UniProtKB/TrEMBL annotation:
InterPro entries: Glyco_hydro_43 (IPR006710), Glyco_hydro_beta-prop_sf (IPR023296)
Keywords: Glycosidase, Hydrolase
Organism listed in the record: Microbacterium saccharophilum
Source taxonomy: Bacteria, Bacillati, Actinomycetota, Actinomycetes, Micrococcales
Superkingdom, taxonomy of origin: Bacteria
Name recorded for this polypeptide: Family 43 glycosylhydrolase
Length: 317
């Protein structure tokens, strides 16, 4: 569907629809940065990229959310070449009055995985362009990322997130006001995973998580008490489901009328893995699939629509 025109590293997309316009917020990984730094620094130092669309298919790059005194402001054009903060995995919802963002923040630009605190921070906005910083959430550790938020069956808001200290499983907390959170413990345990997305479809609550080998699927009656679909090894968007044999990674669902679309990232079609070229290995693109439920089983459509360029061409896979 979309490739980031600055660094070609669009990941962790979340999409909302406001007044008929589609907005995509995503982690702008620095895949093609001319001097990204050592180790995994290229995965850090990221801004939140923004793209907009009239139909959810043809996207135009809008800019990045840049830090300012009050929070974040949408700025057109490329981000600064040198940055001192890392932003990951935005979750954007509407609370009935205004927009809310739950953003993973890391101080600095780490060049390795361990030893660096990660925090989920709340923001709010009236227009999706200017975001007021509300502050960090007090959760189960100082290594929390990848927020997902929804209002569940009994009327409570719930937050699901990855806790790296708790063996990288999904934890949950509840709130009546999206400000004060009560920890509820492990929502999804077992195999390490990340990037939960929670949504309603066909009378069920669904959670899709990224297991780095495809997506694990869980089902619930009311958004609590989750049961795995298809057994411990079953996934959707796994090997063989995407062009080039790639797998689907960290995404989120959006409802458009009766349709629910799942946006996620993978290697761009036509960019071969194993080339030995660092930029090729790091590039990523956003895809989407339509979700459906058949006899209580969540599945994807039999085809994917891939956004081949940032100029407006699409093709059916």
């Amino acid at each position: 569907m979309y490739r980031d025109p600055v660094y070609d590293g669009a990941t962790d997309p979340t999409v909302v629809i406001a007044d008929g316009e589609w907005w995509m917020f995503y982690t702008q990984r620095r895949a093609t940065h001319p001097d990204p730094g050592p180790g995994v620094a290229w995965v850090h130092g990221s801004r939140i990229g923004v793209a907009r669309s009239d139909d959810g298919v043809s996207w135009r790059y809008t800019g990045t959310l840049e830090p300012d005194a009050g929070g974040l402001t949408l700025e057109p054009g490329p981000p600064p070449l040198h940055v001192d903060v890392t932003h990951w995995a935005p979750e954007v919802i509407h609370d009935g009055r205004r927009w809310r963002m739950f953003l993973t923040e890391i101080d600095g630009v780490p060049d390795r995985w361990p030893g660096f605190a990660r925090t989920i921070v709340g923001y709010d906005s009236e227009d999706l362009r200017s975001w007021r910083r509300l502050g960090p959430l007090s959760l189960s550790s100082d290594r929390v990322i990848d927020a997902a938020v929804a209002r569940t069956g009994e009327g409570l808001w719930r937050l699901w997130y990855k806790d790296e200290v708790a063996d990288s499983v999904t934890m949950t907390a509840s709130s009546t006001d999206l400000a004060e959170w009560v920890l509820e413990g492990v929502a999804i345990g077992g195999r390490p995973h990340e990037g939960p997305s929670v949504f309603e479809l066909d009378g069920w609550w669904w959670m899709v998580v990224d297991e780095w080998r495809g997506m694990g699927v869980y089902r619930s009656v009311a958004g609590v008490g989750w049961h795995r679909q298809g057994g411990a090894d079953a996934v959707i968007l796994g090997p063989g489901d995407l062009p080039g044999g790639d797998i689907g990674n960290h995404g989120a669902a959006v409802r458009d009328g009766d349709d629910v679309w799942f946006y996620f990232f993978a290697r761009p079609a036509g960019v071969a893995g194993g080339s030995g070229v660092a930029e090729d290995e790091r590039r990523s693109a956003v895809y989407r699939v339509k979700l459906r439920v058949d006899e209580g089983v969540l599945s994807t459509r039999s085809h994917l629509t891939a956004w081949q360029t940032v100029t407006g061409n699409t093709s059916e896979m």
